[in-house]
């Protein structure tokens, strides 16, 4: 079961389109890569090759 990570200030920002975009800070707190090709992925996942760098 995945643990719930509380969202704090600096964990995301709202894009001009109105979406929440999680920052590197949030991804590091979460502690793993979801392999969704996140914009600020600190784990180096490339959604085009489906591999971590």
Please describe what this structure looks like.
The chain has 53 residues and is α+β, with helices and mostly antiparallel strands. Helix content is 13%, strand content 19%. The chain contains one helix and four strands. Strands 1-2 form a two-stranded antiparallel ribbon. Strands 3-4 form a two-stranded antiparallel ribbon. The radius of gyration is 12 Å and the shape is globular. The mean pLDDT is 90.
Q: Which characteristics define this entry?
A:
19% strand; two-stranded antiparallel ribbon; alpha+beta; 53 residues; 1 helix; two-stranded antiparallel sheet
Quickly give the structural class.
alpha+beta
**Taking Cα atoms only, what radius of gyration do you get, to the nearest Å?**
12 Å
The total count of strands amounts to 4
Helix share bin: 10-25%
Order of helices and strands: EEHEE
pLDDT < 50 stretches: none
Write a brief caption for the model.
With 53 residues, the chain is α+β, with helices and mostly antiparallel strands. 13% of the residues lie in helices and 19% in strands.
């Amino acid at each position: 079961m995945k643990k719930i990570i509380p969202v704090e200030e600096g964990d995301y920002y709202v894009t001009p389109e109105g979406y929440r975009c999680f920052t590197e800070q949030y991804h590091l707190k979460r502690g793993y890569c979801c392999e969704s090709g996140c914009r600020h992925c600190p784990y180096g996942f490339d959604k085009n090759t489906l591999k971590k760098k």
